[in-house]
Amino acid sequence: MSTYSVAHSPDADDIFMFYAIKFGWVSAKDLHFTNTALDIETLNEKALENFYDITAISFALYPKIRNEYALLRTAVSFGEGYGPKLIKKRGKKLKPNFKAALSGRYTTNALLFRIAYPHARPVYMNFLDIEKAVLEGTVDAGVLIHESILDFDENLEVERELWDIWVDLAGSDLPLPLGGMALRRSIPLNKAIEAEEMLTKTVAVAHNHKTLLSKMLLERNLVRIEDEQLQRYLDLYANEHSITMNELQYEALNRLFAIGFEYDFYDCPIRAKDFLIPHEYKCLREM
């Protein structure tokens, strides 16, 4: 049996999409996964080190790891009319060089923020600490991500939706690419295909048994939010569009990568489909 390390965030959408494997609902005869949960920026940094076999990443990171990792089609999170929020204290006026807390240098929200606010001074910290940093005045503003966008202190207000920044830059209302999965290219191709198929099945099973799986996660204290918020969050970031990427999502990814190249975040433009695992290999082997 081949064993591969899978790294994902401890956020509700990643936990939801992976735990059908942990609970034994999905398995493979000759494939086994071990899992590690880390915050998204740590995962991004570990991906730059080629550390885990399969890992969650911010989509904005992918062009920087394209030579070591293939892009997976499954376990993806996109915003459709929503996304991270730039928040500040109520009534506060931000100067052009305001100090802002971001969840990590390689996140999609950081790329969009740095383009929209070129004179701002980013400070990187765990996303769980951002709301407190803004309230205490350690920073002037901060970008909330994950579950924190659902409910934050009444003394804070939204300065700008990152969705609006995305629409301005993309020139359309394509879905906002936030997070996905990548797989090390050193894994044999037949095993890579099998791993992606298993993960795709896992996300599909999780989605099809959303109520039961959510209840099990809540009973075991595996997520940081309560039932009502969990359902809202999963509707946003772990839904039917998370199972396998569609053409609109590929188009959105290509636009993100083009914007990143245009603003000198990447060394060359890339297209998402050129970096997927070639499933046609399986068909050729079976002929």
From TrEMBL:
Family stated for the protein in its record: Belongs to the MqnA/MqnD family. MqnD subfamily.
Residue ranges the record marks as coiled coil: none
SUPFAM superfamilies: Periplasmic binding protein-like II
Pfam families per record: VitK2_biosynth (PF02621)
Keyword field: Lyase, Menaquinone biosynthesis
Gene Ontology terms: biological process: menaquinone biosynthetic process
Pathway: Quinol/quinone metabolism; menaquinone biosynthesis
Organism: Nitratiruptor tergarcus DSM 16512
EC identifiers of the protein: 4.1.99.29
GO terms assigned for molecular function: carbon-carbon lyase activity
Annotated catalysed reactions: cyclic dehypoxanthinylfutalosinate = 1,4-dihydroxy-6-naphthoate + dihydroxyacetone
InterPro entries, per the entry: Menaquinone_biosynth, MqnD
CDD domains xref list: PBP2_MqnD_like
EC main group: lyase
Catalytic site positions: 146
Record's protein name: 1,4-dihydroxy-6-naphtoate synthase
Organism domain of life: Bacteria
Function in brief: Catalyzes the conversion of cyclic dehypoxanthine futalosine (cyclic DHFL) into 1,4-dihydroxy-6-naphthoate, a step in the biosynthesis of menaquinone (MK, vitamin K2).
